[in-house]
Specification:
The protein is an alpha+beta fold. It has 15 helices and 16 strands.
Length: about 550
């Protein structure tokens, strides 16, 4: 009898107050900490109606009530439960009957015990009939740490197993994508570390890990039901991860396709990110940042496709599909469609990058073969019979007349070939070793010409990598095209050139004009060797220019710093 009377009383209370209650997407709130009897009485004075996802009455305590629909269930089905996601501590009443609590509601931060963000409460069997019921909450949130748009994130009644299963099933695809993104990111970073991958490889690896961090932070709530004060740090980390993804995506597309107009990337992305200050809520800010990033990236990919860049169409297709999923739910994109969209997009970018790396490897292998062949030709030219006969004749004369000069020549000649042998198998060597080879060669030529030659340097970094025999070949070209009968000085100037975000090293080599023959450079074996060696060491990232000046023949070389 007591149970029947209690049920009847609660139903009467529910029906009495239902006429004043709003739609299921709305709730009623009361900013004052009313006595429990007054809050449950159904009195409408002081209550106001707001959207459910905009509930926030300060630190509280305050009251909230709303209608909850219990779905129809089959006979013998388990008693339904109530799933609640509230950023605060709360006490709950179901049709006027105490339902449970999450943490301890308090008037001060000291009195409050923080509750968990998500809770699942079984409903009383006698009050779980299908239909509309009244939920009343007393809430406090002293330790929130930020001003949210709303603190009620989820409210639903249903079978407990189905509610828990739906929550976990939503995490499975994201966690699968998470593992793939982490592996992709570590793979590309390892390539940078082990095989000197380029900027595009580094950015792609960082982008994969930033996307993985965003997915992990989104899944954190479902994996670990944390106390509500930790929600603010999680949201800030989420915003940082979303901003990292938003910045790295267009940077990766830019690096992959070499966009010539660099300001496009920063101007479009910058304007999009500046608009974040006008957007409410973390989800809104993340949505705007990712939308701006996708827009700028699509512009860059479109421009690359129009220029005929290889792989640009694949990147454009991936970005288009991602943009389509983004448009379906822009404000909840990082939580809903991000794992699917960015998982597919990054697979497309990885495939494009793999194709580019394969073509680059083919170019590198071709350049290496050409460099080896030209190196043999240069060596044959240095050991041709005419050179050997002149060298041996000079040595014979010096041994009899000037033994000291003969010894000096033999030591200089041995130093040249010792250096050539040491660097012949290297892709790059420190500039200091190249300068040693050049000075040894000048000693040899000085002995042969009966004069003195010097090499002056200015502004060079002797630890900077250069292709082997780069300057040595320039010296050989100078002696092949000029006749020097008096002391001359060769000059090498180095400098750093700022070019966008990638500084470059510039070397200017000046060979003085000789006498008796015109100056010249040409496209002989030496010049082809230079270009092959530069392509081998810095694929597609070098420049070589040469030409006559008033002071002699100038060669300008630029390579990545």
């Amino acid at each position: 009898m007591m149970s029947s009377a209690l049920v009847a009383g609660c139903l009467a209370l529910s029906l009495a107050s239902s006429s004043a209650l709003p739609t299921p997407r709305q709730v009623q709130v009361h900013a004052e900490d009313l006595p429990v009897e007054v809050a449950l009485s159904g009195d409408a004075r002081g209550w106001r109606t707001v959207e459910r996802d905009e509930v926030h009455e300060g630190a509280g305590p305050f009251w909230m009530r709303t209608q909850v629909e219990v779905p129809v269930r089959e006979d013998g089905a388990p008693t339904p439960a109530l799933a609640l996601s509230v950023l605060g501590s709360w006490e709950a009443w179901w049709d006027g009957v105490p339902l449970g609590r999450n943490g301890q509601v308090g008037r001060t931060p000291e009195e409050e015990v923080p509750g968990r963000v998500d809770a699942l409460l079984p409903l009383p069997p006698e009050l779980s009939a299908p239909g509309t019921h009244l939920l009343t909450l007393r809430i406090s949130s002293h330790r929130l740490g930020f001003q949210p748009v709303g603190i009620v994130h989820h409210l639903r009644a249903g079978e407990a197993a189905s509610l828990a299963q739906a929550r976990m099933l939503g995490l499975v695809p994201a966690l699968c994508t998470l593992g793939a993104l982490v592996l992709m990111g570590l793979y590309h970073l390892a390539r940078v570390r082990l095989s000197h991958g380029g900027l595009a490889t580094l950015l792609l690896g960082a982008l994969c890990l930033a996307a993985a961090a965003l997915l992990l932070l989104e899944a954190w709530r479902g994996l670990a039901n944390y106390p509500y004060p930790l929600h603010a740090p999680r949201l800030r980390l989420l915003a940082a991860a979303a901003l990292a993804v938003s910045a790295l995506l267009p940077a990766t597309v830019h690096a992959a396709f070499g966009e010539p107009r660099r300001w496009l990337r920063w101007a479009g992305l910058g304007l999009g990110l500046l608009s974040l200050v006008l957007v409410r809520g973390f989800d809104g800010k993340n949505g705007v940042a990712l939308g701006a990033s996708l827009t700028v990236s699509m512009v860059l990919a479109m421009r690359a496709w129009r220029r005929g860049e290889k792989g640009a169409l694949g990147a454009l297709v991936g970005l288009g599909l991602t943009g389509t999923l983004y448009m379906l739910a822009p404000w909840g994109f990082s939580e809903l469609g991000f794992f699917l969209a960015f998982g597919g997009l990054l697979l497309c970018l990885a495939a494009v990058h793999a194709q580019q790396q394969r073509r680059q490897q083919e170019r590198l292998e071709s350049a290496t073969r050409v460099a080896e062949r030209l190196q043999l030709e240069l060596l044959k030219r240095s050991l041709q019979p005419h050179f050997l006969m002149n060298t041996l004749a000079a040595l014979s004369e010096w041994v009899e007349t000037e033994p000291a000069q003969a010894v000096r020549f033999i030591e200089a000649l041995g130093a040249v070939y010792r250096h050539l042998l040491a660097v012949s198998g290297e892709r790059t060597i420190p500039l200091a070793r190249e300068l040693e080879l050049c000075r040894a060669h000048l000693d040899v030529m000085g002995c042969r010409q009966g004069t003195a030659f010097h090499l002056e340097t200015a502004g060079v970094d002797i630890e900077a990598p250069v292709p082997p025999a780069l300057l040595h070949t320039l010296l050989e070209n100078a002696f092949s095209h000029n006749r020097y009968v008096s002391p001359h000085t060769f000059r090498l100037e180095g400098s750093l050139v700022a070019e966008g975000t990638r500084p470059r090293r510039r070397y200017i080599f000046l060979a003085p004009s000789g006498t008796g023959t015109p100056r010249g450079g040409g496209e002989g074996t030496g010049s082809r060797y230079l270009r092959a060696r530069l392509e081998e060491a810095f694929p597609g990232a070098w420049r070589l220019e040469d030409g006559p000046t008033e002071a002699g023949w100038m060669t300008r070389v630029e390579v990545p710093a």
